[in-house]
Amino acid sequence: MMKLVQLETCESTNDEAWKHLPETTLVVTRHQTRGRGRQGRKWEDDAGNIMASLALAPIDGLSERLTWLPLAAGVAAGEMLSVTAGRDLAGLRLKWPNDVMWEDAKMGGLLCETRFSGERLVGVVVGFGLNVERAPDVAGMKTACVGAHAKDFDRARFLGLWADRVQYWAEELAQGRTSKLREAWLRLAKLERFPAFTVHDASGETVKLTALDLDDAGRLKAQAGPSKIVFLDQPA
User: Fold this and answer.
1) Nearest alpha carbon to residue 15 among 43, 2, 1, 66
2) Would you tell me which of 20, 28, 139, 190 could form a disulfide with 52, CB atoms 3.0–4.6 Å apart?
3) Would strands 99-102 and 25-32 be described as parallel, antiparallel, or unpaired?
4) According to CATH, what is the number of the domain 3-190?
5) Can you tell me the distance from the alpha carbon of 42 to that of 168, in angstroms, rounded to the nearest whole number?
Protein backbone atom coordinates (compact mmCIF):
# COMPACT_ATOMS: atom_id res chain seq x y z
CA MET A 1 0.00 0.00 0.00
CA MET A 2 1.40 3.38 -1.00
CA LYS A 3 0.92 6.44 1.20
CA LEU A 4 0.07 9.78 -0.45
CA VAL A 5 1.23 13.05 1.11
CA GLN A 6 -0.09 16.26 -0.46
CA LEU A 7 1.52 19.55 0.53
CA GLU A 8 0.73 23.14 -0.34
CA THR A 9 4.39 24.12 -0.15
CA CYS A 10 7.73 22.67 0.92
CA GLU A 11 11.43 23.23 0.36
CA SER A 12 11.95 20.01 -1.61
CA THR A 13 9.72 17.02 -2.26
CA ASN A 14 12.80 14.78 -2.18
CA ASP A 15 13.65 15.99 1.33
CA GLU A 16 10.05 15.43 2.43
CA ALA A 17 9.97 11.95 0.92
CA TRP A 18 13.01 10.84 2.91
CA LYS A 19 11.10 11.52 6.13
CA HIS A 20 8.55 8.81 5.32
CA LEU A 21 10.84 5.84 4.72
CA PRO A 22 10.70 2.90 5.22
CA GLU A 23 7.07 3.36 4.14
CA THR A 24 6.62 3.66 0.37
CA THR A 25 5.25 7.19 -0.05
CA LEU A 26 4.37 9.59 -2.86
CA VAL A 27 4.86 13.25 -1.92
CA VAL A 28 3.24 15.93 -4.08
CA THR A 29 3.38 19.70 -3.66
CA ARG A 30 1.97 22.76 -5.38
CA HIS A 31 5.09 24.81 -4.69
CA GLN A 32 8.65 24.10 -3.61
CA THR A 33 11.22 26.70 -2.67
CA ARG A 34 14.41 24.66 -3.10
CA GLY A 35 13.60 22.13 -5.80
CA ARG A 36 16.71 20.59 -7.29
CA GLY A 37 17.68 18.70 -10.39
CA ARG A 38 20.68 16.62 -11.35
CA GLN A 39 24.18 17.99 -10.62
CA GLY A 40 22.77 20.56 -8.19
CA ARG A 41 20.74 22.45 -10.77
CA LYS A 42 17.62 24.30 -9.64
CA TRP A 43 14.33 22.89 -10.88
CA GLU A 44 12.01 25.65 -12.08
CA ASP A 45 8.81 25.90 -10.05
CA ASP A 46 5.72 26.93 -12.01
CA ALA A 47 2.09 26.77 -10.91
CA GLY A 48 0.14 23.90 -12.45
CA ASN A 49 3.19 21.74 -13.10
CA ILE A 50 4.04 18.48 -11.34
CA MET A 51 6.51 18.44 -8.47
CA ALA A 52 6.60 15.06 -6.76
CA SER A 53 8.87 12.48 -5.16
CA LEU A 54 8.43 8.78 -4.58
CA ALA A 55 10.11 7.16 -1.57
CA LEU A 56 10.73 3.46 -2.22
CA ALA A 57 11.38 1.03 0.60
CA PRO A 58 14.43 -1.15 -0.15
CA ILE A 59 13.82 -4.26 -2.25
CA ASP A 60 16.17 -7.24 -2.05
CA GLY A 61 18.37 -7.25 -5.13
CA LEU A 62 17.77 -3.63 -6.13
CA SER A 63 21.03 -2.25 -4.72
CA GLU A 64 23.03 -4.19 -7.33
CA ARG A 65 21.16 -2.47 -10.18
CA LEU A 66 20.69 1.11 -9.00
CA THR A 67 22.28 2.54 -12.16
CA TRP A 68 19.13 1.43 -13.98
CA LEU A 69 16.69 3.19 -11.66
CA PRO A 70 16.67 6.66 -13.35
CA LEU A 71 16.01 4.89 -16.65
CA ALA A 72 13.19 2.90 -15.05
CA ALA A 73 11.58 6.05 -13.67
CA GLY A 74 11.82 7.66 -17.10
CA VAL A 75 10.27 4.65 -18.81
CA ALA A 76 7.44 4.72 -16.26
CA ALA A 77 6.86 8.39 -17.10
CA GLY A 78 6.86 7.79 -20.84
CA GLU A 79 4.52 4.82 -20.60
CA MET A 80 2.02 6.49 -18.29
CA LEU A 81 2.00 9.82 -20.14
CA SER A 82 0.61 8.01 -23.18
CA VAL A 83 -1.84 6.03 -21.05
CA THR A 84 -3.12 9.18 -19.34
CA ALA A 85 -3.37 11.08 -22.62
CA GLY A 86 -5.33 8.17 -24.09
CA ARG A 87 -3.19 8.01 -27.21
CA ASP A 88 0.35 7.63 -28.46
CA LEU A 89 2.29 10.89 -28.09
CA ALA A 90 4.45 10.94 -31.20
CA GLY A 91 6.82 13.66 -30.01
CA LEU A 92 7.42 12.13 -26.59
CA ARG A 93 10.84 10.61 -25.99
CA LEU A 94 13.41 9.94 -23.28
CA LYS A 95 16.92 11.35 -23.19
CA TRP A 96 19.66 9.57 -21.26
CA PRO A 97 19.94 9.50 -18.35
CA ASN A 98 16.93 11.24 -16.83
CA ASP A 99 15.11 13.68 -19.13
CA VAL A 100 11.58 13.53 -20.51
CA MET A 101 11.50 15.36 -23.84
CA TRP A 102 9.10 16.55 -26.50
CA GLU A 103 11.27 16.15 -29.59
CA ASP A 104 14.21 18.48 -28.81
CA ALA A 105 12.56 20.39 -25.94
CA LYS A 106 12.76 19.39 -22.28
CA MET A 107 9.42 18.58 -20.70
CA GLY A 108 10.48 16.96 -17.44
CA GLY A 109 13.32 15.53 -15.42
CA LEU A 110 14.07 12.98 -12.73
CA LEU A 111 16.44 12.91 -9.78
CA CYS A 112 17.19 9.63 -8.00
CA GLU A 113 18.81 9.67 -4.57
CA THR A 114 19.95 6.69 -2.49
CA ARG A 115 21.04 6.20 1.10
CA PHE A 116 23.08 3.38 2.57
CA SER A 117 23.94 2.22 6.07
CA GLY A 118 27.28 0.60 5.47
CA GLU A 119 26.58 -1.67 2.50
CA ARG A 120 22.85 -1.95 3.22
CA LEU A 121 20.45 0.07 1.06
CA VAL A 122 18.22 2.11 3.37
CA GLY A 123 15.95 3.49 0.68
CA VAL A 124 15.56 5.31 -2.61
CA VAL A 125 13.81 8.56 -3.47
CA VAL A 126 12.84 9.39 -7.05
CA GLY A 127 12.07 13.06 -7.64
CA PHE A 128 10.06 14.05 -10.70
CA GLY A 129 9.30 17.43 -12.20
CA LEU A 130 7.01 17.66 -15.23
CA ASN A 131 5.84 20.73 -17.12
CA VAL A 132 2.09 20.31 -17.46
CA GLU A 133 0.45 23.71 -17.88
CA ARG A 134 3.44 25.89 -18.66
CA ALA A 135 6.88 25.51 -20.20
CA PRO A 136 9.23 27.70 -18.13
CA ASP A 137 11.69 30.09 -19.72
CA VAL A 138 15.16 28.65 -19.16
CA ALA A 139 18.20 30.33 -20.69
CA GLY A 140 19.85 28.22 -23.36
CA MET A 141 17.23 25.48 -23.27
CA LYS A 142 14.11 24.66 -25.25
CA THR A 143 11.20 23.66 -23.02
CA ALA A 144 7.80 22.08 -23.59
CA CYS A 145 4.69 21.22 -21.60
CA VAL A 146 2.30 18.28 -21.66
CA GLY A 147 -0.77 20.50 -21.92
CA ALA A 148 0.22 21.71 -25.37
CA HIS A 149 -0.03 18.16 -26.71
CA ALA A 150 -2.57 16.39 -24.46
CA LYS A 151 -5.71 18.34 -23.58
CA ASP A 152 -7.52 17.72 -20.27
CA PHE A 153 -4.46 15.94 -18.87
CA ASP A 154 -5.32 14.40 -15.48
CA ARG A 155 -2.31 15.07 -13.25
CA ALA A 156 -3.57 13.09 -10.26
CA ARG A 157 -4.29 10.00 -12.36
CA PHE A 158 -0.93 10.25 -14.08
CA LEU A 159 0.98 10.51 -10.80
CA GLY A 160 -0.74 7.47 -9.35
CA LEU A 161 -0.03 5.44 -12.48
CA TRP A 162 3.57 6.66 -12.62
CA ALA A 163 4.30 5.78 -8.99
CA ASP A 164 2.83 2.30 -9.41
CA ARG A 165 4.83 1.78 -12.59
CA VAL A 166 8.11 2.87 -10.95
CA GLN A 167 7.45 0.27 -8.27
CA TYR A 168 6.82 -2.33 -10.96
CA TRP A 169 10.09 -1.58 -12.73
CA ALA A 170 12.02 -1.49 -9.44
CA GLU A 171 10.76 -4.99 -8.69
CA GLU A 172 11.73 -6.12 -12.19
CA LEU A 173 15.23 -4.74 -11.65
CA ALA A 174 15.50 -6.45 -8.28
CA GLN A 175 14.81 -9.73 -10.11
CA GLY A 176 17.57 -8.97 -12.62
CA ARG A 177 15.28 -8.34 -15.59
CA THR A 178 17.35 -5.50 -17.04
CA SER A 179 16.97 -6.61 -20.66
CA LYS A 180 13.23 -5.96 -20.48
CA LEU A 181 13.84 -2.43 -19.20
CA ARG A 182 16.55 -1.82 -21.80
CA GLU A 183 14.10 -2.67 -24.59
CA ALA A 184 11.44 -0.37 -23.13
CA TRP A 185 13.90 2.51 -22.73
CA LEU A 186 15.27 2.19 -26.27
CA ARG A 187 11.75 2.16 -27.67
CA LEU A 188 10.95 5.42 -25.87
CA ALA A 189 14.34 7.06 -26.49
CA LYS A 190 13.90 6.86 -30.29
CA LEU A 191 17.64 7.04 -30.91
CA GLU A 192 17.13 6.44 -34.62
CA ARG A 193 15.43 9.86 -34.82
CA PHE A 194 17.32 11.68 -32.07
CA PRO A 195 20.89 10.33 -31.98
CA ALA A 196 22.65 13.63 -31.24
CA PHE A 197 24.04 13.83 -27.72
CA THR A 198 26.45 16.28 -26.08
CA VAL A 199 28.62 16.06 -22.98
CA HIS A 200 31.23 18.30 -21.41
CA ASP A 201 34.79 17.07 -20.97
CA ALA A 202 37.06 17.77 -17.99
CA SER A 203 37.97 21.19 -19.39
CA GLY A 204 34.32 22.18 -19.86
CA GLU A 205 34.41 21.87 -23.63
CA THR A 206 31.33 20.51 -25.40
CA VAL A 207 31.79 17.12 -27.05
CA LYS A 208 29.28 15.97 -29.66
CA LEU A 209 28.39 12.28 -29.67
CA THR A 210 26.04 9.96 -31.52
CA ALA A 211 23.98 7.86 -29.11
CA LEU A 212 23.78 4.22 -30.19
CA ASP A 213 22.54 1.89 -27.47
CA LEU A 214 22.55 0.94 -23.77
CA ASP A 215 24.97 -1.63 -22.42
CA ASP A 216 24.23 -4.27 -19.78
CA ALA A 217 24.84 -1.78 -16.96
CA GLY A 218 22.57 0.94 -18.32
CA ARG A 219 25.46 3.01 -19.64
CA LEU A 220 24.97 4.95 -22.85
CA LYS A 221 26.98 3.58 -25.76
CA ALA A 222 27.92 6.41 -28.11
CA GLN A 223 30.15 7.13 -31.06
CA ALA A 224 32.70 9.88 -30.46
CA GLY A 225 34.43 9.73 -33.82
CA PRO A 226 34.80 7.60 -36.95
CA SER A 227 36.27 4.68 -34.99
CA LYS A 228 35.83 5.63 -31.33
CA ILE A 229 33.09 4.17 -29.13
CA VAL A 230 32.59 5.46 -25.58
CA PHE A 231 30.39 4.34 -22.69
CA LEU A 232 28.94 7.03 -20.45
CA ASP A 233 28.32 6.37 -16.78
CA GLN A 234 25.46 8.21 -15.17
CA PRO A 235 26.76 11.55 -13.87
CA ALA A 236 26.15 12.44 -10.25
Assistant:
1) 43
2) 28
3) unpaired
4) 3.30.930.10
5) 29
